[in-house]
TrEMBL record:
<protein>
    <submittedName>
        <fullName>Eukaryotic translation initiation factor 3 subunit f</fullName>
    </submittedName>
</protein>
<keyword id="KW-0396">Initiation factor</keyword>
<keyword id="KW-0648">Protein biosynthesis</keyword>
<dbReference type="GO" id="GO:0003743">
    <property type="term" value="F:translation initiation factor activity"/>
</dbReference>
Amino acid sequence: MWFLRRMLRIPWNAKKTNERVLNEANKRRSLVRTIRKRQATFLGHVMRRGKLEHLVTTGKFEGKRSRGRQREKIMDGLATWLGPGKESDILAAVKDRDLWRDMIANAYKQGT
């Protein structure tokens, strides 16, 4: 953002939001999309393998939960990113590698 503000000659104390600066530069934020894409590819790898990591990422691990607000699970974040559907639909799609790649590519293109 600092670099874009410098290129557009927007002073640091101007009351412009980051979204407005991005609109002026015709750019989109891509870091979050890249992180989600990498998480999805990693999840597909882990789920097809089916070992201990599979149990941890699906949340089927036994034990006490810690106090306070629960952390967001990878599955929850990807379920919102990939669009409407249940976790069971996502887990079924992971088994078919081509379908999984198509789902990730479509979500990445849509930019959600």
